[in-house]
Amino acid sequence: MSSVQSNPSVTNKLSPKEDRAPAAVLKGSVFTLPILKLSLCDLKEIEFDLTQSLATALGFFNNAPLVIDLSVIRDIDEQMDFIGLQALLHKHQLVPVGVQNGTTEQVAAARKAGFAVLTGQTIDKIIENTAQKSHGKEVSEPARQHQEREREPAPTAHGGNAGAPQVIHQPIRSGQRVYARNSDLILLAAVNAGAEVIADGNIHIYAPLRGRALAGVTGDTEARIFCQCMDAELVAIAGTYRFFEDNIPDDINHKPVQIFLTGDQLNINTLE
Amino acid sequence: MAKVIVVTSGKGGVGKTTTSASVATGLAKRGYKTVVIDFDVGLRNLDLIMGCERRVVYDFVNVIHGEATLKQALIRDKRLANLDILPASQTRDKDALIKEGVEKVLNELRKTHDYIICDSPAGIETGAVMALYFADEAIVVTNPEVSSVRDSDRILGILSAKSKRAMDGEDPIKEYLLITRYDPNRVQTGEMLSIDDIMELLGIPLAGVIPESMSVLQASNSGTPVIHDELSISGLAYQDLVERLLGEEVPIRFISPVKKGLFKRLFGT
How many CB pairs lie under 8 A apart between chains A and B? Predict the structure, then answer.
């Protein structure tokens, strides 16, 4: 018996490419990720505030992939312990995937700790950019809304609805998405099936709601949704949601309703 | 000032090319110098519907890539002297449509034509976005069924967000709803969505209702836009549509159910 001979049944050779479907294919895609904005490098302080934010978010961020925003601490003359930060986030069931807006040193340290480095545009910048644009040149109302509308929203890990409400006059159509960050969202035209309206605060829809509405997404359990004609696919307040797969109950179907939380109970009451 | 009108829908098979051919023909019949462009690169059909498939030598992609002049690629309609067809390429794919190239061709056509009709491919990818990007007006073709209405809604969102007019903050694209393959009898029995249902869901002005009719298929197969067929209710409905596009007030016809007579009830349609 020659030792060179190998048993054909145990050969470990990969089959030629033509014979099989590719085992791995690289593809591009776009995701919406929550952002954790840091303003201090002290892990203890971060943990304290994060625990509080997460407590109000009612599991909305459980196992959520997260991007760490360094735009505030980039000016702080202090070293960030990225390995420690990663452990901390994992402990709180968050999955950090990358950092953005860091200095060269911070980015290098983050890379070492296994973070990806992202160069994304946040909603802040977009609004800033649009504001500048409308400053120089009169940008029509619908166009401005659309610019904001088409961007994927980036909810932050802290709540609040302190800003001026965002008012939208045009219908939100299938595939479109609006996010009112730190504010209420007021819609004067329909939210169609397949569309999504999201706000850190309340959502008011003076038209039919046929798509999805998510209020208080950063954990505001006091947030409410009001709509003039209830025909939604999904409604959610602070992470507690209800999905209308087949039929909306007759007593609320096509009626004006308000949607709010009491404890972890989602209520949908008619306004009549 | 030339007008660019896109005929779009999102969903396939709803009647975009039929509509493009008939609208372009109708406008040309009314005396406007018109060109109809096939944006469905790789699956060109407009030349078939217009009955000029054997005369295609150069196409839209050739012009964009500088392999032919616009004059070489434009095909004069066999019936109307003031109607031109710019066919799509059958051998390329939609990535061959470059925004700058499309813009250049459209700008050149704006100088010589009154109306530029862009026949959009189905879907929401490059080809469809290119067809609507430079539009001044849009005819959104919808069938009276749920998935078609949903796709039209999607395309309306894209019109108001990704078109040049939206991006530059100009006046928005003027949107018209066109309901095709409408069968009043099936609407009455609840098999099809009604005009009111569709209008409520989409919320844009209605420019026409084309009734379902055998003559559309016959016209397509014979390479004659159905608007030429003056005996067909679909042809007449397209004439009405063209008049409305030109700003005339024309009542919507052919939308009431037809009662079947005794003979038809006994022997079928």
Answer: 56
Tens-digit pLDDT profile for residues A133-169: 333 333 334 444 444 444 434 444 344 446 889 999 9
Q: Do B160 and A150 touch (CB under 8 A)?
A: no
Domain spans, chain A = 35-147, 153-270
The pLDDT tens digits for A191-237 are: 999 999 999 999 999 999 999 999 999 999 999 999 999 999 999 99
Helix %, strand %, coil % for chain B, to 5? Answer: 45, 15, 40
Distance CA B235, CA B231 (A): 7
Class assignment of domain A153-270? mainly beta
- CA A48 centroid distance within chain: 22
Facing A190 at nearest CB: one of B124, B161, B203: B203
> Who contacts A209 (Cβ-Cβ below 8 Å, separation ≥6)?
A190, A191, A225, A227, A229, A230, A231, A232, A235
Where do we find the tokens 């059958």?
B90
Q: Homologous superfamily of A35-147 in CATH?
A: ACT domain (3.30.70.260)
Reported ipTM: the value is 0.80
d(CA A187, CA A193): 15
**A chain contacts of residue B161, beta-carbon cutoff 8 Å:** 146-147, 149-150, 176
**Nearest-angstrom CA–CA distance, A158 and A37:** 9
